[in-house]
Amino acid sequence: MSEHLDILTKHCDVSRKSVCDIGAGDGSFAASLVNLGANVTAVEVDEQHVSAIKQAHGDTITALMGEAQALPLPDASVDLACFMFSFHHVPLHYQETAISEAQRVLRPAGRLHVADPRPFGQLTEVLLHVDDETEVRTISQKRMDNLHANGNFVLVSKDEYTLVRTFKNFNELTSKLIMNDTTRAERLPSVRDKMETAFHKLSKKTEMGFVLNQPCVSFHFERAR
Fold it and tell me: In sequence order, which residues have a C-beta less than 8 Å from that of residue 5 and are 6 or more positions away?
């Protein structure tokens, strides 16, 4: 998580800013923004995630049910909108609408930050046995590469970096990245052996556990005035 935060804060001071974390998951990134002084609204399509965020963080994070293509926020109400590993989960036919929604809720000169895993890398190779996201990641990132052409956003920076994930064992990987996703969990039994073989082949064993690298890309935009 620190890698994501380091890249974001290089381009945007989040202190005292109003931030919308779109597709907030368990709220861990939203919580890291709160720790830096941001006022954060976490938007999640999963009711269980919304409940978990409220239970874990109380009033420090405003957690709302909602979709990227229909954000439950007023016009021009936030300074920063973030998609942290969530934009490629927006159905492809809704992505243009999701971008328009981000533009709608951003104030003039507000920022849009989109970070996603590249469609390659050690962790991706392990996970593709249970969830091949090659196409959706490729299309999503191409959309970001071309976003400046619509005239509504100005690209401030595109950053390539590597997320380093460490797992005690294969079971911890499945617990963190598979079992909390119904579709992945249903597929796991049929591909578990192949996944575990790939895990041990591609990871590097250290004193802390098994290390897998995930190349990432982030796009940081400013909303055109």
Answer: 29, 32, 33, 36
| Contacts (Cβ under 8 Å, ≥6 apart) of 10 | 157, 159
Tell me, rounded to whole angstroms, the distance of Cα 204 from its chain centroid. Answer: 25
Q: Where are the domains of the chain?
A: 2-223
* Helix (H) or strand (E) run with residue 220 in it: strand 209-223
135-182 pLDDT tens trace: 999 999 999 999 998 889 999 999 999 999 999 999 999 999 999 888
CATH superfamily ID and name for 2-223:
Vaccinia Virus protein VP39 (3.40.50.150)
Cα–Cα dist 58/81, whole Å: 21
Q: Which amino acid belongs to residue 113?
A: H
Q: Is the pLDDT of residue 1 over 70?
A: no
Q: Can you read off the two tokens belonging to residue 70?
A: 């229909």
Say if CB 108 and CB 78 are below 8 A apart: no
